[in-house]
Write a structure and sequence with these properties.
With 193 residues, this protein is an alpha+beta fold. Helix content is 47%, strand content 18%. Helix 3 packs antiparallel against helix 4 (119-142). The radius of gyration is 25 Å and the shape is elongated. The two termini are 35 Å apart.
Length: 193
């Protein structure tokens, strides 16, 4: 076998659902009578399980995980989009709009410059508005975007033709992590593309 079968598709993505550590990879090879490697299997396992610091028994076969992802990724992306919609509907009252706060800050400055308010009042209001502005800007950061399902148009054909390096890049771009639960389910966290 060449070194190219040593590409670990999901390095850094697979996370132990028991202890939260990133799973490590190892491979084992089958050899024929002549000692030639006939097949190599790649596994992910929790590093803490080896020193008895984690109960995670599961070892994840890379081929099986890849197959599961290929079969389920579009469905999982759709579910993710639906959950974003649901969360948006249940979001607490709308946070102040950053633009409006910036205008208030401007007005406050004008009042202060024109000597219409005292310095300590200016500083107190300025601090309060700045904190609000920070919150409003954070909120924008947290507005997760749905996944563009067009990403998956014809992706199977492209994927099947891609080499391992490009397959790995595809998963790393799409997924932030794959959490493996104790009963062997996978929970996906998508990247913001």
């Amino acid at each position: 076998g060449t070194r190219s079968d040593r590409v670990y598709l999901f390095t850094g993505l697979v996370v132990c659902g028991s202890c939260g550590r990133r799973m490590t990879t190892y491979s084992c090879s089958n050899r024929n009578k002549e000692g030639k490697i006939t097949s190599t299997f790649i596994y992910y396992r929790c590093p803490a399980h080896l020193d008895r610091n984690c109960a995670m028994q599961k070892q994840i076969n890379q081929d099986k995980l890849e197959q599961w992802l290929l079969d389920n990724i579009v469905q999982k992306a759709k579910e993710y989009n639906v959950s974003l919609e649901t969360n948006k509907k249940h979001r607490p009252q709308k946070l102040p709009d950053a633009e409006k706060i910036r205008m208030k800050l401007e007005r406050l400055k004008d009042l202060y410059i024109s000597n219409l308010i005292l310095k300590d009042m200016y500083e107190k209001d300025f601090a309060a508005l700045s904190a609000l502005l920070h919150d409003a800007e954070q909120q924008v950061m947290e507005d997760l975007k749905p996944i563009d399902l067009r990403t998956f148009n014809g992706f199977r054909e492209a994927y099947d033709q891609a080499d391992l390096i490009h397959r790995k890049a595809f998963w790393s771009r799409l997924l932030e992590k794959i959490v493996v639960t104790e009963n062997g389910d996978y929970i996906l966290t998508f990247n913001q593309l």
